[in-house]
Specification:
13 strands; six-stranded antiparallel sheet; single chain
């Protein structure tokens, strides 16, 4: 791919920026790591940025603090599910990432997959299950192995694989600990890749693919954020034609959800025929030392700091009001 250019926006023109981090979701600790990295990056480039934790301060205080933009480094519920986005819309504070509806759709794995299916985009077969009995019925219908997922969680929280019938009940119970809505998904055996996206609509661009090789094929929470054993291959080791086709699939999936700003899709490539299947879309990806969008951006020519600035420069409101609110009265 062509090397990406950093934003041309002057730091002073971006105004006073609240970096939203922490929050009340089960991904709070990861969000704090992401937010601290983003805050340091923006401040190093001269942006008037400050930390803001919605779990400790009411969002309405953003107006008192004269925030003119918000960089959303929150993950999971009450962060990337449309709720914070809706509050910022009411406050008139432009924010990074997709808008209210796109955020709400993307965090719901069931609705995401339904939309992708309607657009003819490949995603593994699935069933929504509300009990162990329904989980066993899904296993009989879809076959094993089967992945059980908390439908509204990220960071692999509540993710459990069942390879044998006697494992189905425990796998369902693990997912149900995090969410009343549990998705049972057909397991795709093959390579796992992820692909970040920057921009909006026809101007959206896919970042270089990353091939994820986790110990034993188990890309769980520990291997995602804390382990040094997981290997990330970027530039990717896939054939060029295959990588290009997957990038186009990811862009189609991003546009189908009406995403903007940035995001990251996870994909499994079936070993038997190399067919890619979309798993989910992340609309507030991690920005930690182990995170994948910064890794891919570096390969495309953007430093971590340039990536943060580019994402921030794209902050806006669904309502279409200007991102320039400097000097607005609280």
């Amino acid at each position: 791919m062509n090397r990406l250019q950093p934003s041309t926006a002057e730091p002073e023109a971006l105004g006073r920026v609240a970096v939203l981090m922490g929050g009340s979701s089960s991904e709070r600790e990861v969000s704090l790591m992401s937010g601290k990295g983003v805050l340091a990056a923006l401040q190093s480039r001269g942006v008037d940025a400050f930390a803001f934790d919605p779990a400790e301060q009411a969002l309405c205080e953003l107006r008192t603090l004269r925030a003119s933009r918000a960089f959303i480094a929150l993950h999971g519920r009450h962060g990337e599910d449309g709720t914070v986005q809706g509050a910022l819309e009411l406050l008139g504070i432009p924010y990074t990432g997709p808008g209210v509806l796109a955020s709400a759709l993307a965090i719901d794995k069931h609705m995401t997959k339904r939309l992708w299916q309607c657009d003819g985009l490949a995603t593994p077969a699935w069933r929504m299950v509300a009990s162990a009995a329904q989980a066993h019925a899904a296993a009989r219908e879809l076959g094993l192995p089967l992945m059980f997922k908390a439908s509204h969680e990220g960071s692999t929280l509540g993710l459990k694989r069942a390879d044998h019938p006697h494992e189905v009940g425990a796998a369902f119970a693990e997912a149900a600990r995090f969410d009343a809505a549990v998705l049972a998904e057909q397991f795709i055996e093959g390579d796992e890749v992820t692909c970040g996206v920057l921009g909006e609509g026809d101007a959206a661009v896919a970042l270089p693919l990353i091939h994820i090789v986790a110990p034993g094929g188990n890309y769980d929470f520990e291997h995602k954020y804390y382990s040094d054993e997981t290997r990330y291959i970027c530039p990717c080791d896939l054939p060029a034609g295959e990588e290009a086709a997957i990038a186009q699939l990811v862009l189609a999936s991003y546009r189908a959800l009406d995403c903007r700003g940035w995001g990251r899709a996870d994909i499994m490539i079936r070993a038997t025929d190399r067919k890619p299947f979309l798993l989910e879309m992340n609309t507030s990806p991690g920005m930690t030392g182990h995170s994948l969008v910064p890794m891919a951006a570096r390969v495309a020519g953007l430093s971590y700091e340039d990536l943060c600035l580019r994402i921030l420069a794209d902050a806006r409101l669904d309502a279409g009001r200007s991102a320039q609110r400097e000097g607005a009265s609280p």
